[in-house]
Queue: 3 jobs
Job 1
Amino acid sequence: MNFAHCLIYHLPCATRITQREMIKNILFDFGAVLIPIDESLTWSAFQELGAKDELKDQQKLFQKYEKGKISTSEFLAQIQPYFFRKIYPPQLGEAWNSMLKPLPSERVNFLKRLKKEYRIFLLSNTNELHINHIKQQAGLFEYKQFISQFENVHYSYEMGMRKPDAEIFEKVLKDNNLVAEETFYIDDGKKHIKTAKSLGIETWHFKPEEDDINDLRKVLSKLHS
């Protein structure tokens, strides 16, 4: 509805803006939102290889890897001391990737339909091992089909920054000429959602155990209702 219609029919323009007109961009997290993950599987795999309990406390090391501050070979070498015996890099990499479940085949069609109405983007805290595994697991053709549905894909290890830091959201907004208030962000991480909200981005705190990404349209329709 344009301004002329408001004048002719004496309708309050400000209250007649629809949800579809307000939200123009959708920004997705990857893990747990578009691809199922189970982080406990990685710890179980590490334990089978003889991991020490201290490995759980190496969050700074994991974050360095997610920011691309260290290479894959450096990352695997740096977690090796947290095992009771020598573990070869391929075994460590396989254990690290255990959390990743197959990329659902229906995601491509879901995104194809969505991008007819919105600009869609991907923003993920991830790393080279995980992305290479997803490519191999899905097959390069299927992975490329999936990735091609997004206008832009933003991986933390390629950007040198990670969520929940505000700078990564600000960069995505700036690089894609997005208005925060016209952008809808979906993530399972509370801290990530909190940062996005603080920047004026509309959000959906996704709970994998009870939410379904196929309900996205329902969630959008309730926004500002």
Note: The domain at 14-36+102-222 is CATH 3.40.50.1000 (Rossmann fold).
Job 2
Amino acid sequence: MIEQNGKYYGHGYRYVMPEVAAWTNVIQRDSKKACTVNAGSPTFSFAAVDRSGLDHIISGEFCADSIAAGDINKSGRVARWPVDGNTGQPKLTNGLWKADAAYRLPVSNIQGAVSYNHKWFLSRSRGASNGVLYVTKPITSATGILKIDTAHYAAVGPEDLTHWPKSNGSPGGLWTVTEHAGRRLLYVCNIDRLNKRDELDNICGPNPNLS
């Protein structure tokens, strides 16, 4: 976004999102060791919001299949960062914003993640094939490796996830957007229907053979 003669321009885009603040990791990241146990701080690739219980910002790290090569220590990481529900500001400890939970991802190529009610939902791309939406087993600790419970069809090229609960308190849906040119769409998976067997082989429907 630039300003010329008192007018602002967004490089041809109809909408822009202004940046109002930024946070920097105090632990340095070694780009040559990205997606390894020795990388230091993770690369921030995607984000989401979890409002089940205390509000949190979710961050995640994308690590490609070509880098991970099946090594779970190279599959990427996700974390939960506490937020003040009244102000929307980070909850700081001595001036630092500290994650109160962090996990290794069970597979690589994760493009988006969101947590809700002690479970994680993960979207994985698979090139030109249908992606996968994973639901993890309930988490029982603040660290560790997320464990996959069920797998579901996603559209081709799924990206970030966001959770929108319903006003009546029901789980609502998981929204995502796809990235491939000519095949971009925005759609929602109803959380209550994720494990319905009559949805087998449909988008959002379960398929235990997906990996």
Note: The chain has one domain: 2-29+36-199.
Job 3
Amino acid sequence: MIKMVFTLLAALVLSACGASPNAAPARSSESAERPQATTTAASTADIEGDFRTNFGETNWGMAVTGFSFKDGNLHVSAQIDASDKATAEKIQRGVVNLIRTGGPYAVGPINWVIVEDGTGVVVTQQKV
């Protein structure tokens, strides 16, 4: 179940940014070289390992309902209450760490990660 959630989150981030799982990561003059994305079983295991290392065995991923990408901002929709900052911060930290680790989910110039409740109210945000 955890592996499925991890894989789904990575795919949703890619989809929100308009990339495919085998797309090469975007490069800018400010960012370091990033490895080419792969779709092998080893890369899936690496993604799962990254999640476990960075985020632990938590259930915040199940609260995420979708992603959208606009003007350099990655909006993460979650089924949480607008007052639930603790869960929003776990989601935010997890997604920001996922982006910063590079790999197949490091696509496009993501400047901000914004976590919103189901109605679109911003609960927390962080510059990447």
Note: Confidence is low (pLDDT under 50) at residues 23-31.
